[in-house]
């Protein structure tokens, strides 16, 4: 049975300000959804709330993943269940190499499955990481660098995709993965994502611009405005937005 | 002015009647007797005691002690312990793990002292046959007096501070390491001073003569169990011209121990000193750690690791003194603090007028793991030469929620995520420690401290 992420009537507030006011959205494993909307409409709030950021307070609604209530779970448990968030602004963790970090993440998963687990054997991990880096055309040097520390915008986004590839989630949320990237970097990142999409991965692409959707082509497009999804449709909806701009949404839904 | 010394050894002020050890000459003579002091040290001891009596107990009004309050120390209790010459009750055994080699798997020698008792003292033949000396303090004064007296108190003067004279007057154990000119000691030496007395006083002297080389790991440790303890110590490090010393100091004293130390090193022409400090123990620490680069081209590196928890208070006061040309000093102290613990680092690079072409670096970085934890970091430069390159940096950062969230979003448990960030924080200091065994000990102490 394929994994399903169901968001029902989700209300979220941040520091007592209501940001999401009843979001309904369902993403199935194998599907690609795009979530668009003007700045401040609540897209990133949705991403953080789905992952369980402590500053985002769920005031109503539910999030069900693989039939289980996600709102009761911590971010780490959500991740281990198969949800992934590619951050718009990944933080740097000085002193922790990409390789060490990913091995810790993998071992956390193994340990959660089996408390006796001794962790992934180092040679096996090295091979896995090399294969993933190669499949994303990444330089192997990245494994030994401190996580996101001194990374360029493009390198950070690619490191996020490397994590996505290594952790093999069922549903991934890509939060403004295109922001801050020039067109070449954007293409590289999109190619990476396209290598991973398939029947095993559902993707929710959050973006402000249509341009990313020329490379990662969604089956479903949703438009968020003032904390609600106000339009849903096929890829043509993204093109319509590109043509008419968000003014169209504002005048239709204000 | 309440606590200034009036010149007669009597500290005037409200706490004057208790703010010092109440011991007299007869107590010092008694220690001398028990220790079997050689005549010369009996004399030094009494000399130190005179200075001790004339030196006021430092207080918050002294610049170096502004952030470390020792007014709560129960000196009366320690005085009694000294007068009664008493071991601590329920003496704990030296823990086995302290005896493991920390550098490589072979040791060139090991000394283990518990209280005053030497439990073990060994030195490989290949070293002793070349004239290397590695022995405890008592044996050094008795059997190597001529040599030892040329070093002890020569760097750390009994006038350097209250606790320097305290250690000089009341010393009851310590270590002497001597490497003759031109001798390379291939296998590392290891010593452990296990402090199981209520009041403990130690002196350590390391002398590596011209062209010699040595790797040495020294640990002071005591039990967390039992009553409050006092430790005052001196460490003197001589690195002759062209000599090389790698010196690792581990401090894992019990959490009831007040720890005071005065440490100084002197590095000669083209000589190298790689000096590592780790501090995880004690109730309160006040350490003066001075690097004196005296010869042209001398090189000195000081790497400090500390991790405080509970109500621990750790104060490290460092100096990098450049006294000749073409020298390099490089200091990095990194500390993590949890609960309501506190650290102070106060560092100074002094560049004397003739010390051209100096490279001097100092950095102190702190990671606060709790709201109540506090770190003070005070760098300083005093430069009297014009052709120098000196930099300093001090940072105090918090464990950030965004970092933890990011790590947790990859499936890592909260506790593990905290550990990942702390390990990452310490990584640059681990990279400076050239010994796997020492790094492993520090890593496991991080695990213990985080638990």
What does this entry look like structurally?
The complex is a heterodimer of chains A (254) and B (451). With 254 residues, chain A is α/β, with parallel strands linked by helices. Chain A contains eight helices and twelve strands. Chain A has helices at residues 43-51, 75-81, 98-113, 122-135, 153-167, 183-196, 235-244, 247-253; strands at 4-14, 17-28, 32-36, 56-65, 68-69, 83-86, 93-97, 146-147, 171-175, 202-206, 220-225, 228-233. In chain A, the strands form three sheets. Chain A has a six-stranded mixed sheet with strand order 6-9-10-3-11-12, sandwiched between helices. In chain A, a hairpin with a 2-residue loop joins strand 1 and strand 2. The termini of chain A are far apart. Chain B is of the alpha/beta class and 451 residues long. Chain B has a domain at 96-400. In chain B, a hairpin with a 2-residue loop joins strand 1 (109-114) and strand 2 (117-123). In chain B, helix 9 runs antiparallel to helix 10. The radius of gyration of chain B is 21 Å and the shape is globular. The termini of chain B are far apart. Chain A binds chain B through residues 51-55, 74-76, 78-80, 84-85, 87, 90-91, 93-96, 101, 104-105, 108-109, 112, 146, 163, 167, and chain B through 400-403, 405-414, 416-417, 420-421, 423-428.
**DSSP helix count of chain B?**
10
Strand content of chain A: 25-35%
Query: Major sheet of chain A: order of its strands?
Result: 6-9-10-3-11-12
Which term fits the overall shape of chain A?
A: globular
* SS summary, helix count of chain A: 8
Overall pLDDT level of chain B: 93
**Low-pLDDT residue spans of chain A:** none
CATH architecture of chain A: 3-Layer(aba) Sandwich
Helical/strand content category of chain B: alpha/beta
The CATH class designation of chain A is Alpha Beta
Query: Strand pairing plus helix content of chain A: what structural class?
Result: alpha/beta
Number of domains of chain A: 1
Q: Helix fraction of chain A?
A: 25-40%
Question: What portion of residues of chain B is helical?
Answer: 10-25%
Largest β sheet strand count, sense and barrel closure of chain A = 6 strands, mixed
Main sheet attributes: strand count, strand direction, barrel closure of chain B: 10 strands, mixed
Low-confidence stretches of chain B: 1-18
Gap between N and C termini of chain B: 44 Å
């Amino acid at each position: 049975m394929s994994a399903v992420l169901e968001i029902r009537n989700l209300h979220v507030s941040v520091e007592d300000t209501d940001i999401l006011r009843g979001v309904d959205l369902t993403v199935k494993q194998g599907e690609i959804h795009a979530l668009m909307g003007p700045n401040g409409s609540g897209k990133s709030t949705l991403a953080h709330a789905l992952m369980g950021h402590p500053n985002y307070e769920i005031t109503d609604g539910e999030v069900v993943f693989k039939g289980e209530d996600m709102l009761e779970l911590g971010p780490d448990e959500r991740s281990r269940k198969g949800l992934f968030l590619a951050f718009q602004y990944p933080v740097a963790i000085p002193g922790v190499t990409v390789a060490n970090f990913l091995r810790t993440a993998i071992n956390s998963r193994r340990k959660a499955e089996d408390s006796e687990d001794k962790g992934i054997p180092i040679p096996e991990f090295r091979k896995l990481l090399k294969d993933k880096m190669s499949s994303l055309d990444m330089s192997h040097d990245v494994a030994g660098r401190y996580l996101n520390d001194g990374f360029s915008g493009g390198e950070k986004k690619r490191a996020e995709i490397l994590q996505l590839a290594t952790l093999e989630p069922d549903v991934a949320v890509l939060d403004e993965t295109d922001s801050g990237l020039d067109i070449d970097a954007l293409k590289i990142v999109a190619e990476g994502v396209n290598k991973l999409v398939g029947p095993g991965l559902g993707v929710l692409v959050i973006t402000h611009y249509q341009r990313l959707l020329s490379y990662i082509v969604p089956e479903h497009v949703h438009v968020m405005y003032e904390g609600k999804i106000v339009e849903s449709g096929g890829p043509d909806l993204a093109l319509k937005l590109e043509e008419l701009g968000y003014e169209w949404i504002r005048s239709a839904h204000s | 002015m309440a606590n200034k010394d009036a010149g007669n050894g009597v500290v005037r002020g409200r706490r004057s009647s208790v703010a010092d050890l109440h011991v007299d000459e007869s107590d010092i003579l008694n220690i001398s007797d028990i220790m079997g002091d050689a005549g010369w040290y009996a004399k030094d001891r009494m000399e130190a005691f005179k200075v001790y009596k004339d030196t006021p107990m430092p207080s918050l009004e002294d610049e170096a002690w502004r952030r470390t309050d020792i007014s709560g120390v129960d000196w009366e209790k320690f005085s009694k312990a000294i007068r009664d010459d008493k071991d601590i009750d329920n003496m704990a055994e030296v823990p086995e793990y302290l005896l493991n080699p920390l550098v490589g798997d072979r040791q060139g020698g090991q000394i283990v002292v518990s209280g005053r008792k030497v439990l073990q003292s060994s030195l490989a033949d290949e070293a002793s046959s070349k004239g290397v000396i590695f022995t405890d303090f008592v044996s050094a004064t008795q059997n190597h007096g001529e040599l030892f007296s040329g070093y002890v108190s020569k760097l750390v003067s009994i006038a350097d501070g209250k606790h320097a004279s305290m250690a000089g007057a009341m010393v009851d154990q310590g270590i002497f390491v001597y490497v003759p000119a031109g001798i390379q000691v291939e296998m590392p030496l290891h010593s452990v001073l296990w402090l199981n007395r209520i009041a403990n006083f130690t002196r350590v002297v390391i002398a590596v003569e011209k062209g010699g080389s040595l790797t040495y790991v020294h640990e002071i440790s005591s039990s967390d169990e039992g009553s409050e303890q006092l430790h005052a110590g001196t460490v003197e490090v001589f690195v002759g011209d062209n000599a090389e010393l790698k010196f690792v100091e581990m401090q894992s004293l019990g959490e009831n121990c007040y720890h005071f130390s005065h440490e100084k090193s002197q590095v000669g022409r083209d000589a190298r000193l790689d000096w590592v400090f780790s501090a995880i123990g004690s109730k309160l620490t006040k350490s003066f750690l001075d690097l004196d680069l005296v010869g042209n081209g001398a090189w000195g590196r000081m790497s400090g690791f500390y991790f405080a928890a509970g109500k621990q208070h750790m104060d490290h006061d460092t100096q990098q003194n450049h006294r000749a040309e073409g020298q390099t000093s490089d200091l990095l102290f990194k500390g993590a603090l949890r609960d309501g613990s506190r650290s102070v680092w106060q560092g100074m690079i002094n560049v004397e007028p003739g010390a051209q072409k100096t490279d001097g670096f100092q950095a102190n970085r702190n990671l606060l793991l709790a709201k109540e934890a506090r770190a003070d970091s005070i760098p300083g430069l005093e430069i009297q030469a014009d052709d120098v390159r000196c930099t300093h940096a001090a940072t105090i950062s918090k464990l950030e929620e965004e970092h933890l969230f990011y790590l947790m979003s990859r499936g890592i448990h909260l506790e593990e995520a905290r550990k990942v960030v702390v390990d990452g924080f310490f990584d640059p200091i681990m990279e400076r420690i050239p010994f796997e065994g020492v790094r492993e000990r520090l890593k496991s102490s991080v695990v213990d401290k985080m638990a």
